[in-house]
Design goal:
This protein has 8 helices and 7 strands; from the N terminus they run βαβαβαβαβαβαααβ. With 251 residues, the chain is α/β, with parallel strands linked by helices. The chain has a 7-stranded parallel β-sheet, sandwiched between helices. The longest helix has 29 residues. The protein starts with a strand and ends in a 9-residue tail after the last strand. The protein binds nicotinamide-adenine-dinucleotide (NAD).
């Protein structure tokens, strides 16, 4: 496969780092853009040592359009191109929707939805300028379809992200740029560890996830790599659920 360059948001840890690992194993150069600049640099260094690919770790708050534009410029200056964008950065405060402050609601929307808008518009403009097509993957959630009282902001942002993905898929398809979603099920990361490592939720996984285990960041990374492969050229505007069969189980 031709050498490619991927920009992944929120990849200093968790699912983003798992995605970076899977793409790096295919020889893809990786740009880790994370609001935690120190962690982004450290993770980029670690990934380069683990996989041998070229990496760049940069601080970037995706809610700030000027910061996103600066990272895109930096990535193009360093690697000459961006072939893949993964809109992965996201937050989930887990607060009851009746207790949630307006500021918290707006912040979730800003990171999970508006941030992906900035990244996609700015990276896609660069892809269009280069004229070689591209791949854009949006990390959504099962919360596109189901939610809870503690995930009102999160589910609204992720359902919005799913439709944003579809709009970009229509706009960018003619330029050879595909846009798709990956909806992870329950994945063990720092975002969710506090919950899934308790005895009751851990037992729930065994009975409610047909494959019998919680997901890993690399389970999601492998799905992203699939959608970014040349074989996926005709897959555009769809959401792929990667949950070990969890959502197939009747309540
Ligand atoms: N873990 C799960 O079970 C699960 C399930 C479904 C969907 N997801 C989605 O997967 C994505 C990654 O989740 P995770 O579990 O790895 O989370 P995580 O909290 O472990 O990692 C998220 C990363 O995003 C970064 N980030 C946060 N705000 C940012 C901002 N404004 N700009 C740039 N970077 C920012 C954080 O610094 C962190 O490194 C999120 O979009 C999340 O909604 C996770």
């Amino acid at each position: 496969m031709q050498k490619r360059v991927a920009l992944i948001t929120g990849a200093a840890r968790g699912i983003g780092y798992g995605i970076a690992t899977c793409l790096a194993r295919q020889g893809t150069s990786i740009v880790i853009a994370d609001v935690n600049a120190k962690a982004a640099r450290a993770s980029a260094k670690q990934l380069a040592a683990e996989t041998g690919v070229k990496t760049l770790g940069v601080g970037c708050d995706i809610t700030r359009r000027t910061q996103v534009a600066a990272v895109v410029r930096q990535a193009v200056k360093r690697f000459g191109q961006i072939d893949i964008l993964v809109n992965n950065a996201g937050i989930c405060p887990f607060v009851d929707i009746m207790e949630m402050s307006e500021a918290m609601f707006k912040k979730t929307m800003d990171v999970n939805l508006n941030g992906a808008f900035h990244c996609t518009q700015l990276v896609a403009a660069e892809m269009i300028k280069r004229g070689q097509g591209g791949r854009i993957v949006f990390i959504t959630s099962l919360a596109v379809n189901v939610t809870s009282a503690q995930q009102g902001d999160y589910a609204a942002s992720k359902a919005g992200l799913h439709m944003l993905m579809k709009s970009f898929a229509i706009a960018l398809g003619p330029k050879g740029i595909t846009c798709n979603g990956v909806a992870p099920g329950m994945i063990l990361t720092d975002l969710t560890r506090f919950h899934w490592e308790k005895p009751e939720p851990a037992a729930f996984i065994k009975t409610r996830v047909p494959v019998g285990r919680i997901g890993t960041p690399e389970d999601i990374g492998n799905a992203v790599a699939l959608l970014c492969s040349p074989q996926a050229a005709y897959i555009n505007g769809v959401g792929l659920i990667v949950d070990g069969g969890h959502q197939a189980v009747c309540a």
